[in-house]
Amino acid sequence: MPPEGTNFSQRAGFAEYFAKAARKTTPPTPAEMALLERFRPRLTVADGEEGPIDFYGDYIAQGTLRDGSGKRVPGPVTRALLNKYRRDPLAVFAHKPLAGPASGNGTAVVFGTVTRDVIPGHGQLTFLTYHFVFRTSGLAAGFDGAPRGLLGLVADPDNWHQLDHYTAATVVLDATGTPAALFLQQHHYGRSWLVGRDLKLPADGRVQLMAAVSSNELYPFAPGQTRHRVIRFWGPEAARYLVFGTDKPWISADDITRSGREADYRLEGLPPDDAFYSFEGFLGERRRLPGRDGPPGADYNALPRLKGPAHQLLLFSWRPCDQAQLDRITRAMDGSGRPALDSTEMRTLADAFFDPARKPARC
Questions:
Q1: DSSP calls for 40-107
Q2: Is the whole-model pTM more than 0.85?
Q3: pLDDT tens, position by position, 276-315
Q4: Alpha carbons 82 and 64: distance in angstroms, whole number
Q5: pLDDT tens across 85-132, in order?
Q6: Which residues contact 362 (CB under 8 A, 6 or more apart)?
Q7: I need a labelling partner for 143 at 20 to 30 A (CA). Which of 34, 149, 236, 351 fits?
């Protein structure tokens, strides 16, 4: 557990991980930005939802920053000021939106990064990651009945915590530069799709996504309204419910996606050591109930042993009703504290995931 008063960024293992996988101090190159532009996703937002915003222009520009001692930092909060305090685990930025349902400048900004990783037997892959940013994060819209009603007595289920920037989509390119897979960060886990087998892309190669109502979680586009099973944290029992729909937890929810409008956004690149990714304190106000504090930077999206684009792609390569792949993933997540996948485990998971002839399983 992280030290008292701090957040997930202080969990044991992150310091060691980033010592080995040091963050770059320069933004994506022009060639990398061109690649990100070429495959930038389309995002549909349900009517009535605010949609993505500009992190620095809409969010950080409206609020106050306090350092680790609780003292308010004078002056308007800018990117430069936020970066000055990014290594302070007790620093807190509290967003104070201007009046109105959408107080920003109207044009969202999505931050893109390009990384490369090798999967044994499948060569080097290129990972194009796009971070969409939302002002607040709510509970899953399908969190119905008595539990939601009880929580609604003490908190707003549609404004559970400030800032949602873990809503990331990663388009994976093969050695020829062709989209091969999609990975979506969802809640405290994720899911991978193989292009051509699990997911069809438009002719221009730009994946079509939807943001779930209230929770903002990303899903592949589907017309109309769709419900998606949700779990809080990945574990053997919870994963079985996610994969098979059996043994539903008493407190559970569904994400809901609904047709609406396409979000307009501008793509930008930041240095990977920027506060957006690396801030160790709280990027949203602190609230009393567990889980309602603002999050740290976007890099703190998974346990240290699960970090790395290839690891996350393979560890969440589950498919509905596929017991064999779920067994492989469960064995890999053995909780021993070692890196989640060795080369043999990576090859085993990858061979199954990248098999285009692997037919959908039946429950």
A1: PPEEEEETT------IIIIIITSEEEE-TTSPBPPS---HHHHHHTTT-TT-EEEE-PPSSS--S-S-
A2: yes
A3: 999 999 999 999 888 899 999 999 999 898 899 999 999 9
A4: 10
A5: 999 999 999 999 876 544 445 789 999 999 999 999 999 999 999 999
A6: 321
A7: 236
